[in-house]
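Chain A, query sequence.
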Amino acid sequence: MSELKPQEFDRLLRGSSALPRIIVIFGPDRGLVSERAEAAAVRTGIALNDPFAVTKIEASDLQKTPGRLMEEMQSIGLFGGEKLVWVRNAANEKALVDGVTALAAAEPETYLIIEAGDLKKGAALRKAAEAARSVVSVPCYADDQASLNSLIDDILNETGQRITPGARARLLDNLGGDRRASRGEIRKLALYCAHEPQIEEQHVLDIIGDVSETSLDNLIDALLGGDANAMIAALEALISAKTAIYQVLNAVLRQFQMLDTLRAEMDKSRVSASQVIQTHGKHIFFKRRNVVTQALSVWTTPKLSRELSRLQTMVLTSQKNPQIADSVAAQLLLSLTQQSVVRR
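Chain A, predicted structure.
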C-alpha cells in the first residue's frame, strides 16, 4: 500500500477494515507523529500497558543489535494473542530499513508501528515503505491554519464552549509547529474558561500570554536580515515582557515554513525571489518584501529543511524544559541570524 494522506489514514483508523501490519508514520511535526502512532496502536486492540504484548524500541538501539527487530517480530507473546512492536525516533537506520524490507515480503502477523522524523522524498526508510504493498506510510506535516481551526473546534465541541473571532485569531497566533503542544494549549485555555459563557480575547492573553507584535516583527526581520545585534535586542525585549520563548520560536517557525513554500516554488518554476513574491507572496506586508526577498536569495531548500527540523524540535524542547529554553533557543536564533548574512 502506498503513502496515505493524513485524512485517508484517519478514515482507516475509524473504519472496520483490517489494520495493515506495518505502519510508518513520519514528518517534521513530532507531536502529530506521536499522536497518530498512539491512535494506530489503540486501533490494534492490544492492551498497551501489557509489557508482554507490546515491545517499545528506540531505533538507535537496532543499530547495535541488527537482528533484534526480526527477533521481536517473530517472537510470540508470553500469554499468546496479538503482539505489537513499536519503534520510536527512527531515521534511516540501515538495520531498520533492512528489517522493514524483509518483513514486508514476509507479511508478518505481529504489528509494527514506526515513528520517524522528517523523511525526505527518496530517504531509505520512506522508499522501503512505499515500495511494499503491505506497508502503510503516513506523512505528518506542521498544521496549517485550517488544521488548527479544526483542532480548536474539535476540542471546544468536546467541552461545549464557544470562542469569539478575536479570541480565535489571538489563539491561532500562538499555535502551530507541534500538534501535541497545540492541543495542550487549547485544553489549558478551555480549562481556564471552564465557568465562562464563552472564551474572549482577554482570556487568551491571560492564559497564553501576549506576544509583543512589534518586538516579534523586529526579531524576525533582524534574523532574516542577518543583524545579530538587532535580533538579540528584540529577543531581550520579548523575554523582559514575559513572552514565552516557544511563542517566539513558533513565530519564527511559521516564517521559515513560508520561506520553504516560496523557495520550493522558485526552484520548481525557475524564477527569481522577486518574481515568486510578486506571484505567490501577495499576503506579505509590502514593507517586509525586501527582507523576504533577501532571505529567499540566501536560504536554499536544503538549508530550510534542516533548520525547520531544528526549529520543530526546539519548540517541543522549550515546552518540556522551560528552565533552559531561553538560553538554548537564543543560540538557535543566533545561528539562524548568522546564516542569513548575505555572502558577497
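The radius of gyration is 22 Å. The mean pLDDT is 85.
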